[in-house]
Amino acid sequence: MRIATAALLALIAATSVFDRARSLQASVGRSANAFALPGEERGVLRLHYVGKPIGYERYTITPDASALTLSSDFAFTDRGGEVRLTASLRAKPDYTPIAFTATGKSYRFVNVDADVRIDGSDALVRADGHETRVTIPSQFFTVDGYAPFAAQMLMLRYWKAHGQPRLLRTVPGLPINDVFIEARGREAVRIGETVVRLDRYVVDGVVWGRETIWLDERDALAAAITRAGGLSFEAVREDLEPALGGFLERASRDRINDLENLTGQVPLLKSGAYAMVGATIVDATGRPPIADGVVVVRDGRISDVGARGDVAIPADVPTVDVAGKTIVPGLWDMHTHVTQIEWAPVYLAAGVTTVRDMGNEFAFITALRDAIDSRRAAGPRLLLAGLVDGGGPNAFGTEYATTVDEARRVVAKYHDAGFQQIKIYSLVTPPIVEALSAEAHRLGMTVTGHVPTGMTIEQAVSAGFDQIAHLPIRGEADSDEVKQTIRFLRDHKTVVDPTQSWNELLGHAAGTPIAAFQPGIAKIPSPLNRVFANAGAAGIDAATARSRLERGLKIVKALHDAGVPVVAGTDEGIPGHSVHREIELYVEAGFTPMEALQAATIVSARAMKLDAESGTIEKGKRADLVVLNANPLDSIRNIRTMRWTIHDGRVYDVNALWRSVRFQP
Ligand SMILES: [Zn+2]
């Protein structure tokens, strides 16, 4: 079966090519090893971020009498920022680790400083300045995040040499991490006349979520698709580079299948027709809550809602007693990047039933959206913004526009694939902002994005931005300049998603534990903890960090007071939990709890022109609802007390959803 589209390359899931592959494999393998010393193995991997080539990993594996030593140099440049990681791993001939070190960065804000030494049945682990001694399980490996890929390659070799256990423990972790590995099948890649036979594996737990890794017949790494800094990250051996698109599509199909399987394992508590009776209903219209209310759901819609005495429950509709609970509309996250299937259950668990994806790998995000829309997979409704940047070495992603024709082509591509919006990135020039916006508007799409370098907010909005991502307003909320900008945004009905929880997460003083403002940090899987362990601004104290955050919150409040629609977005952050934090921060800024809830429901729906069918609890709207144990109007912290999430009329237990992706409920 042919799955890549380019003329000369195809990733083929067929056994018929294997014989031919075997004869050609030897020559391909040798070329990668052409400069190696006897017994030495070398590899060069091309690194990509969201499909764009950005750097290389070069590794050498040198054997000696009793062991082998992997040395890796991993380096890339992302939007002008340099990232470099050097790592070494010493292992026995059967790949059992002896020592591992990794130093540098694995992403722009992810510092890595790990050193593991095996001492008998213990591992001495130094990571992020802490030293621990842990007892190692009988089967284990040393790996610290997705990079270097060569370490993951040796992990797979270890796994193959040790009976392919379903669970492999890895260090460093907290204190030990669980990694699940599965062989997924054999296939071949054709590059011109050359066919390379590969085995595909899924690895779950080195990063949060599943990775796909391909090894060739010599167990050398051919390709890997993972996640870094919240977006997709790909490594492909140099000679296989033309097959990147095929690898991405193959991994994407694997992941959608995984999500469909995961969906089957999370019990669906109810669907069809039912009436929830006895809860306090906070409908997010701004009207007072309905005490002892009733919501009737039928076929994914709210067929009736009101006080118990005012709603006639049809005789054929079963009732569910939800006395003491509070029902609010399903939440929205207006700034995310759903780069992995694991986000789907996480969002539902957090009460989020609609998200706007602000830039992603094209094949994956469209396939994921379709799987959710067709109900094959459970997840929040996905609205898509298509990312486009200007040209040049510092551009982001794979879609660029530097001419009017290119602008039309990019907008058409996204429009044809059902995207709702265009997201303009930093390097687009002013005339191309105008061209992109005009074409998007002509096709009924809206425009959001980062204010491009060299443009002011006013210029970007005048050129066509309908919305602004993040909060690119400098200065104090009460300065004349800021007031003028806010008036301008109000006059242009510009929508702002200020991502304050993201600013807080990256901008908090490095010495302040994240748990001090984000209790969700205690519930996330170990690999995510490793990512956030070093997040935060170095060299500032807690008071300085707080005053920076408060300056932003004052501007958010001033925008809101002026009538500028503020919509809740996280830019991912702590998955799921950052949505709650974003809402809490709006209350800290001075919103009422109702206004903060509206920012994450009806105001977001209105910004996406979907308020006629979503965003409040009203008759005829989609049955996207959250049942909370406590009322968020009493204290906004109660927004974290999810019990059930109802998406499209289907009722899920949030605890089962959290557990399905290895979060603590
Ligand atoms: Zn973003």
How are the secondary structure elements laid out?
Blueprint: E1 9-12, H1 18-32, E2 41-49, E3 52-63, E4 68-78, E5 81-91, E6 97-107, E7 110-119, E8 122-127, E9 130-135, E10 140-142, H2 149-161, E11 167-171, E12 177-191, E13 194-204, E14 210-216, E15 221-228, E16 231-237, H3 244-265, E17 268-270, E18 274-281, E19 290-298, E20 301-307, E21 319-321, E22 326-329, E23 331-336, H4 343-349, E24 352-357, H5 362-373, E25 381-388, H6 404-416, E26 421-424, H7 430-442, E27 446-449, H8 457-463, E28 467-469, H9 480-491, E29 495-497, H10 500-507, H11 526-532, H12 542-562, H13 577-589, H14 593-599, H15 602-607, E30 625-628, E31 642-647, E32 650-653, H16 654-660
Helix pairs in contact: 3-5, 4-16, 6-7, 9-12, 10-12, 12-13, 13-14
Describe the structure.
It is a single chain. The protein is an alpha+beta fold. Helices cover 28% and strands 33% of the residues. The protein has a 16-stranded mixed sheet that branches. The protein is globular and about 80 Å long. It starts with 8 loop residues before the first strand and ends in a 5-residue tail after the last helix. Zinc ion (ZN) binds next to loops. Zinc ion (ZN) binds at residues 335, 337, 358, 571.
